[in-house]
Write a structure and sequence with these properties.
By secondary structure, the protein is of the alpha/beta class. It has 16 helices and 26 strands. Helix 1 crosses helix 2, helix 7 packs antiparallel against helix 8 and helix 10 packs antiparallel against helix 11. The longest helix is centred in the N-terminal third of the chain and has 44 residues.
C-alpha cells in the first residue's frame, strides 16, 4: 500500500517535469519562429532579400553575400531594430570589389618661342625628375611642369613612346607632341617645304618600328626677298628664270600671261610672302605682255624695279612705243628701266671672264680680270667655295674693264654653287649662266642672287636645265618603287631556308645581296620583314620558326651594311596563308618571307583641350600602318 503511494507521487513529479519541459520547448520554438519571421520580413521589406536568417534560441544569425560593406551594415541595423542587437550574429560576407581600371596615361608637350609645357598623367614608376631635367637641358626656355602621377603598372609601349617624344621635341621649335602608350602624334610647323621634308624623314627614321607615329607638319609660305620675276623670250623659246606670286590667284594670272606670251611646259611660280605691292600681278601681266609685243628679250622684276631688255636689233620706234605704253600703264610704286642694246661691230671681240664647273666638281677660271689682287681674290673665293684642290686659275690682267667687273666676276662664281655643272660668262653688258642642276629652284635662286648683288639694272641671262637624276631627293626611288624592285628580284630567285631551320640556304644569298643593294638606294623607309609558314606541325612551333626566319633575314641585311634602324622582324606562323594548305604547291606558297612597308596612319582629330587653347594664345611655356609590299617566298620546309 505504501509502495503504491510512492509510485503515485513519483508519477506526478515525472508528469509535471514532462509538462514543464514541453512548455519550455514550445516557448523556445515560439521565440525562434517569431524572431526569424520578424527579422526576415523586415529584411524583405528593405529589399535585402539576399540575406539568410536562422534563429537558434535567442540568437539570430544573418548569412549571405552582401553587395558591399554599406549594405551589410544596413542589414545588421534592420535586424537589430526587430530583436536585440546583442542577439544578432553576423556571418555575412561582402562581394570582392572589382579591380579598379587603370587610368589612361598620356602626356602632351607644347613648345613655342615662349617656352615649353608638359601636362598629363604618367605612371609613378616613370622618373619624373629626370624627364623634366631633360627638357630643361635641351634649351634655355622656361619649362612648366603640369604632370600628375598614378601608382599603376606601366603600360606596354609607354617608355618607347615617351623616349621618342622627348628626343623629337628637341628638333621641333614650334610643335605639340601627344604621347600615349605605343603611340605618338606630332603637330608642328616647319620653316619651309625642304625643312618639312627633312623633318618628316628624320622622325620616321628615328621612330621605333613598333611605334604608331602620326605627323601633321605644315610649312608656311616662304618669305621672298627680294620679290623677283624674270621672264625671257629668245631663240630657245619662252621661259621663267624666276617667278614669285603672293596668292594662288596671282600665280594663275601671271602664268596665263606667260602662256599667252609663248611659254610652254608646266611653268613654275613660287607663292610666298614679301610682295612689294598689291598691284604686283597687274605689273607682271603688263610687263610680260610688253615683252611679247617686242618679240624677244627679257623682263626682270626686283621688288618694284622693272628692267625691260629688248633683243639686239629691235626697231627703235617699236621699242619706244612699247616701253612708253608700259610705263604709263604700270601701277604706282613700280619703276621701269628700259634697255635697247646696241648692235656691236662684227669684228669687235668684247672682253669676257669665264668660270667653268665640271660634273666632277673641278672649276676653271679663265678670261680677263682687272688686276693681280682681284685675280687672287677670285681664286681664293673659288677655293673656299669648291675646295682648294678643285680650282685652276688662268685669268689674265687687262686694263679698261668696267668698274663693276670684280662684282660681276665674284657673283658669277657664287652662282655656280647652285649648279651641278655649267659656266658663268661675264661680259661688259651681261652675265650669262648656263648649265645643269639637280635643284628645281636653281634659276630662281640665281636670279635673286644677281638682283641682290648687282642691283636692279643688272643684265643677266640664265639658261639652267633641271635634271631630275641630279636631284638628291627626287632621284631616290619611292617606297613603292622599292617594293616593286624587291618583288622583281624575289620572283626570279626565292629566299630558301634549310629544312626546319632559320638558316638561309646558300642558294638564296645572292638574292639577299640584290635586296640589300636595292634597300641601300631607298633611303629612309620603314619596313617590316614578315615570316610565314604552312599549317604542318604545331601552331606554337610554326610561330616560333617564322619569327626566327624573319630575324635571320634582317640579320643578313645588317651584315650587308643596310641601315635597319627603321626595320622590324615579325613572325606570323600559319595565321595568314595565301594558298590552300591541302596541297604541296599551296604549302610551298605559304612558306614565305614578305617585305611590307609600314605607313603612319593619320589619327582622328581630337577636341581641343583647355591647355592647347592656352598654349596657342602664348600664355604657357609653349603611321604603324598597313602596307602594300613586295613578297619574298621561302622554299624550305617548316618541319
Amino acid at each position: 500500500m505504501r509502495l503504491s503511494q510512492y509510485s503515485l507521487v513519483i508519477s506526478a513529479f515525472v508528469a509535471a517535469a514532462a509538462a514543464a519541459l514541453f512548455a519550455a520547448n514550445s516557448s523556445v520554438q515560439l521565440i525562434e519562429d517569431s524572431s526569424e519571421i520578424g527579422v526576415r520580413d523586415a529584411l524583405d521589406s528593405n529589399d535585402l532579400v539576399w540575406a539568410e536568417v536562422e534563429a537558434d534560441g535567442l540568437r539570430v544569425t544573418l548569412a549571405g553575400l552582401a553587395p558591399n560593406e554599406a549594405v551589410r551594415f544596413r542589414a545588421l541595423s534592420v535586424a537589430g531594430s526587430v530583436v536585440d542587437a546583442a542577439r544578432v550574429i553576423d556571418e555575412m560576407e561582402v562581394e570582392a570589389a572589382a579591380s579598379i581600371i587603370a587610368p589612361r596615361f598620356s602626356v602632351e608637350v607644347l613648345r613655342n618661342t615662349a617656352g615649353l609645357s608638359i601636362i598629363g598623367l604618367i605612371p609613378e614608376a616613370t622618373d619624373r625628375d629626370a624627364l623634366i631635367e631633360g627638357f630643361v637641358d635641351m634649351s634655355d626656355l622656361p619649362v612648366t611642369d603640369l604632370l600628375e602621377t598614378a601608382d599603376y603598372p606601366v603600360p606596354g609601349g609607354w617608355d618607347d613612346a615617351l623616349a621618342f617624344a622627348t628626343a623629337a621635341i628637341e628638333d621641333l621649335p614650334r610643335a605639340k607632341v601627344s604621347v600615349d602608350a605605343g603611340r605618338v602624334e606630332i603637330t608642328a610647323i616647319a620653316d619651309s617645304s625642304d625643312a618639312k621634308a627633312k623633318m618628316e624623314a628624320d622622325l620616321i627614321r628615328s621612330a621605333p618600328p613598333a611605334l604608331r607615329l602620326s605627323m601633321n607638319i605644315t610649312a608656311p609660305r616662304p618669305v621672298i626677298t627680294p620679290f623677283t620675276l624674270r621672264f625671257v623670250k629668245d631663240e630657245n623659246g619662252s621661259r621663267f628664270d624666276s617667278c614669285s606670286a603672293d596668292t594662288e590667284e596671282s600665280q594663275r594670272r601671271i602664268l596665263t600671261a606667260a602662256f599667252e606670251a609663248g611659254l610652254t611646259g608646266p611653268g613654275r611660280c613660287t607663292i610666298g610672302m614679301g610682295v612689294p605691292s598689291r598691284n604686283w600681278t597687274d605689273a607682271a601681266e603688263a610687263a610680260i605682255g610688253a615683252l611679247a609685243e617686242l618679240g624677244a628679250g627679257s623682263v626682270t622684276f626686283s621688288n618694284a624695279d622693272i628692267t625691260l631688255v629688248a633683243a639686239e636689233g629691235t626697231e627703235q620706234r617699236l621699242f619706244d612705243r612699247v616701253t612708253g605704253e608700259l610705263e604709263n600703264s604700270l601701277p604706282e610704286v613700280f619703276a621701269l628701266y628700259p634697255v635697247l642694246p646696241e648692235t656691236p661691230e662684227p669684228s669687235a671681240g668684247p672682253p669676257e671672264f669665264v668660270a667653268t664647273l665640271s660634273p666632277e666638281g673641278q672649276i676653271q677660271l679663265r678670261g680677263r680680270i682687272t688686276d693681280a689682287k682681284m685675280r687672287e681674290v677670285a681664286d681664293s673665293f673659288a677655293r673656299a667655295k669648291f675646295g682648294s684642290e678643285n680650282v685652276y686659275t688662268a685669268a689674265r690682267v687687262v686694263d679698261d674693264l668696267p668698274a663693276d667687273w670684280p662684282a660681276r666676276v665674284l657673283t658669277g662664281i657664287e652662282a655656280l654653287g647652285f649648279l651641278n655643272n655649267g659656266a658663268a660668262t661675264v661680259t661688259p653688258d651681261a652675265i650669262t649662266m648656263t648649265g645643269r642642276s639637280g635643284n628645281a629652284n636653281a634659276s630662281t635662286a640665281i636670279a635673286q642672287l644677281m638682283a641682290d648683288k648687282l642691283g636692279e639694272e643688272a643684265t643677266f641671262e640664265i639658261d639652267i636645265a633641271y635634271v631630275e637624276a641630279l636631284d638628291p631627293i627626287a632621284a631616290l626611288p619611292s617606297p613603292e618603287e622599292c617594293e616593286a624592285q624587291i618583288a622583281t628580284v624575289v620572283s626570279e630567285a626565292k629566299i630558301n631556308f634549310e629544312p626546319g631551320s632559320a638558316t638561309i640556304d646558300t642558294s638564296a644569298l645572292s638574292t639577299m645581296d640584290s635586296i640589300a643593294e636595292i634597300l641601300k638606294e631607298c633611303g629612309d623607309i620603314r619596313l617590316e620583314v614578315q615570316g610565314h609558314t604552312d599549317s604542318q606541325g604545331r601552331e606554337e612551333m610554326n610561330l616560333s620558326l617564322s619569327q626566327a626566319r624573319a630575324e635571320s633575314v634582317l640579320n643578313e641585311l645588317r651584315a650587308r651594311r643596310v641601315l635597319t634602324g627603321s626595320f622590324a622582324a615579325k613572325g606570323y606562323g600559319e595565321t595568314a596563308p595565301v594558298a590552300d594548305n591541302g596541297s604541296e604547291a599551296g604549302r610551298e606558297a605559304n612558306r614565305r618571307i614578305e617585305f611590307r612597308l609600314i605607313r603612319p596612319k593619320p589619327s582622328e582629330p581630337e577636341p581641343q583641350t583647355t591647355l592647347e587653347s592656352v598654349a596657342e594664345s602664348g600664355d604657357t611655356g609653349a603611321q604603324t600602318g598597313d602596307a602594300a609590299a613586295g613578297t619574298a617566298e621561302e622554299g624550305s620546309n617548316n618541319e
